[in-house]
Amino acid sequence: MSKSLQAIRGMNDILPEQTPLWRYFEGTVARLLDNYGYKQIRMPIVEFTELFKRSIGEVTDIVEKEMYTFEDRNGDSLTLRPEGTAACVRAVLEHGLTGGGQPQKLWYIGPMFRHERPQKGRYRQFHQIGLEVFNLDGPDIDAELIVLTWRLWGQLGIRDSVKLELNSLGTSESRGRYRVALVEYLSAHLDKLDEDSQRRLKTNPLRVLDTKNADTQAVLVNAPKMADYLDDESRTHFEGLKARLDAAGIPYVINPKLVRGLDYYSKTVFEWVTDKLGAQGTVCAGGRYDGLVEQMGGKPTTGVGFAMGIERLILLLETLGQVPEEISRQVDVYLCAFGEAAELAALALSEKVRDQLPNLRLQINAGAGSFKSQFKKADKSGALYALILGEDELAQQVIGFKPLRGQGEQQNIAFDALAAHLATCVVQG
């Protein structure tokens, strides 16, 4: 017997009962970004592999271990995008969106792909919303990115469950000086480092700071601090960011070990973390990457951005019980019609109501059926009210109106008064 077809491990279906929460979350973010003046951009999910090697860095875990890379029929090496910033920068360069120093405030949404060990909140196909800002170099735009996420957490009801961590990585020059000091210190304690940190010491030593190994963390207590190697420009920038967050009343903690996992970051880096999801604690992260555009072949262009993981934020909303009750109901009104003539009238009447109440979620029974079977489907739909149209109602040009979720007697409503009645009961009630 052939093996039954199923999804690839770590690449999940999002089922109909789950999508209302996804749509609520995505819609909330999209409206917020519209209000802050960000414009959406949509990039392909497949790019040339070289794009990610040049941007992320060949000695990062993503490029070394996690990318889905393959050759197409032309022999070109292609990769399913593991993150969105590199693809966005490529699009900005290709289409000249930052020409003449023009600022751009962009956002995108979609799936990303990394070959990791699947676990709750971390999948091989995962979804992100990302923001990227170009040609604005002051701490004010760094602050705006953090302020708007703070507002988002408030709209979602999760502010009390997330914490902002900040750090500055300085310029590439100051980071280079720090790297030398860190390697010298860690090399003197090589026997106390875990195997992964010993490997990173030779390739990407700043990532040792991000280790979860307790023994290595103990060694890092007395390691050199990035703050001691910051150049004046980076220090001034970081102080400006903190001053703006203080002015906005946004709490934060300085985490000197926060380095992020990608080579292109400089100056500001930040993460929003939670302790409500176990080990998978980061729900949104980003920072400044002022050298990336030039590194990818463009003119010197400053950049800053972040990405938030949709799966983790959905999980956080569910864990905290912050799923709005109304989004689980996908139908407001269910219309039951009995007989051919009533079905025809129901179709015409429902379209008139939709013209007048475009936000009303009105479902007409399909497949005919007895009074009992149609009412059973009406109740199962989750609708607040049922409308009933049979031969008697049709003759009187009225429709039965019956509450399904509470008190109230059935009553008859005239066809021409139905929309106004529904507006009172459903749209406003």
UniProtKB/TrEMBL annotation:
EC id: 6.1.1.21
Residues the entry annotates as binding L-histidine: E83, G84, T85, R114, Q128, E132, R260, Y264, Y265
GO BP, one annotated term: histidyl-tRNA aminoacylation
Broad enzyme group: ligase
One cellular component (GO) term of this entry: cytoplasm
Pfam families: HGTP_anticodon, tRNA-synt_His
Keywords (A to Z) from UniProt: Aminoacyl-tRNA synthetase, ATP-binding, Cytoplasm, Ligase, Nucleotide-binding, Protein biosynthesis
Cross-referenced PROSITE patterns: AA_TRNA_LIGASE_II
Catalysis: reaction(s): tRNA(His) + L-histidine + ATP = L-histidyl-tRNA(His) + AMP + diphosphate + H(+)
Complex and partners: Homodimer.
PANTHER family documented for this protein: HISTIDINE--TRNA LIGASE, MITOCHONDRIAL-RELATED, HISTIDYL-TRNA SYNTHETASE
The protein, known as: Histidine--tRNA ligase
Organism annotation: Pseudomonas fluorescens
Gene name in the database record: hisS
